[in-house]
Fold this protein.
Amino acid sequence: MARFLSLFLLFLSLLSLPSLECSGQAKESVVVQVPSKSISISEPFVISIVFSSPNSVNDPSPTYRFPDIPNLKKQGISRSKSANMVNGQLIQSSTFSQYYEVSVVGNLSIPSLEVEAGQQTLRIDPFILSVSPSQEETMEAQPNNEVPVEFNGNTNQPFFIVSSDLSKPYIGQGFTLSMSFFVPESNGLALEFDQNDVQIPQLIQQMKPRNCWEENFGLTTERILKVKIKGKLFTEYRFFQASYFPLDGREIRIPSLRFRVLQIQAKSLEKTPLYFTSKALLIRPLPLPRHPLSGRVPVGNFQLIEKITTEKPSTGQAIDYTASLVGDGNSILWDSKTVESDYFLDFSTRATSTSIAPFREKMFGNKTEIIQVIPKQPGKFVLGNYFQWIYFNVKTAKFDTLRSKIVISVVGKSSDNRLSTKQSEGDLYRGIEFKDTLDVVWSRWVNWRQVVNLILFGMSSVIVYLVWKRPK
């Protein structure tokens, strides 16, 4: 899981957080990126266009066109969006990624390419695409997306299916729906798609859940995959894929769908309609345990990936702490981390970024924050005392907390000569950063009240004694 999330973070880092060196008056920009020029034959080759602009002039629907590449076949287009706070300015970014299927192993010479983005034509210089053989197991369907075999009978026949990776997600947990047509390698029928540009959108409208937040994979054409089901090789034509996050506990009913193809008769070449029917799906969201933060924090599997420019700064030296929260939950629910400065450390947010994008067979989110830290006192400081993120862990079925594991050792002179923490964060100073001025004032009043109460108690005792001793 950790390696998987790290790979996703590496992929997403090429698409999301802008440079911190940008000026306060950021302008619209369009860049084209090639995340990787070395892939396996089971992986798609990707070209991405990133549109970035200040919020006030952001174009919600930019135009673009990806090039055709010799020996590569276009598949679907995915998209991701991010909102980045850079030096106090909100920057909106939209990323569109074109997937290409590679059919041969070796070093492929890719010629110069032109990508149309808005009113611009961007150029990609010629390069070599290295394609390595895939491992045998990569041809198998992934466990979370394994195709059910209890469909309409024989796996030697084509079939149409709507599948979900989860049948009982928690409220707020993402589940992924896919709509695909499978054709076995041993298929003897001559088939042809029938007006998919009209038929598929109609089927999608019928199957979409209503009480969910949707994050679409953005397939504009069918994605062609090779998978194995019970040892038999199939070609999957995936028409639709999206992750949904239930907003409440109502049941989600995906109706049975009817998919039409044309069968070509061998002798007469006559085309006759042939129908395939998917099974209906019932998804029952599970309620979350009672908690003050239910519905306000992400639900899923998350990992904290963090780094700091140095773990041994000097007092007064500005360092950057970067925290990335990566996982398959809805990352828009992560609150921005606002940490108050105290006597020991000074904090200020430099940049924030929230992105969500498809990676392999899941929709992953990434919330990244860069926070400037200026130590004011020498000593050792555990950043986990300052940085914590709460979420619902679907593996343990409990609310969980991600904490920073970084410890900084500050050297140098104290900024306040009356107090030094050079040796360590001792008991004398432990928790002082959480003290409020009002607490100190109230403590003084508590002391005075105790004195007054003691005097009143003494006077009451004297009165009782005198009453008891008086002559009868």
Q: What stands out?
A: The chain has a mean pLDDT of 79.
